[in-house]
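Format notes (please read before filing issues)

Several people have asked whether sequences and structure tokens are stored in separate files. They are not. Every record keeps both together, in the order shown below: the sequence lines, then the token lines. Line labels are part of the format and must not be stripped during preprocessing.
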Amino acid sequence: MKQPSKRVLVTGATGFTGGALAKKLVERGDHVVALVRKGANIAPLEQLGVELVFGDITDADAVSKAAQGVQIIYHIAAVFRTAGHPDEYYEAVNIGGVKHVIDAARTHNVARTVHCSTIGVHGDIEELPSNEESPFNPGDIYQRTKLAGEQLFAKAMDDGLPGSIFRPGAIYGPGDLRLLKMFKQIKRGFFPLFGGGTNLYHLSYIDDLTDGIILCGEHPNALGQRFILCSNEYGTLKDLAATIASQLGVKAPTFAPPIGPLMLAAKACEALCRPLGIDPPLHTRRVEFFVKSRAFDNSKAREMIGYQPKISTREGVKRTIKWYQDNDLL
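Then the structure lines:
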């Protein structure tokens, strides 16, 4: 039986995850409203017939205007680790933006609000695979402000706001550009596995993720809960690189230089550049990609709300490569 259409608000709809979510909601028959900043690439949303409300997540009045008459809010907007932003901007978006969404949901009696957090709130922890109750250990301004935003939202749920929280794994798939550099390096035959590539890496394919996000917005068991949304499988960075190489028809990376010199170089770059207000060409967090293990347990989402990731890493990599090639990126 087809579900009746809903009027829903998606923040962050010009981004990768928010855009994919908006597209899926439109395709299933929902009326999607998107809060978008002036100057953003709105063409894909216009083609979908999304209703656009211009404004910024840091503007309480704009958020409230966008939330009028909606039944569900999917709050995806956030500021990531991009160059040149002061700490105050992360706080304004990743914490202040959450407060504006909470206030708008309360003002307009929104039936359900879903908040996008990050598995990064767990930081670098020893317990693997981690779950929703694992310790918090944020490692940078992005992770710290995302944790503060999640805790603000959790407090609102405790105080009666009908909602849920999800923490996605490393999101990838057609449309994503964050892993493009890795794919390009592997295709060229030079992707150094610093430290050996034995650290664990856990992905979340975009189509599976958006299915999970919608479950957070509609399943009765999701109310008041936090869920990790990620693939059913994870493996080492070396295994992921080999899978990408296999799908590209090239040799799997084997060069494994030590991590120490690279980390020292990254720390030196940060020490020299930050006092000058320059974004370092090499960050310690980029080096940590090669050493930090990230593996998670999605059983709570599977058991409570019927979350069912369908795309294997091999199939997801295959589809991502095709999209890169179709768009002359790889």
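For reference, the curators noted about this record: The mean pLDDT is 93. The longest helix spans residues 87-107.
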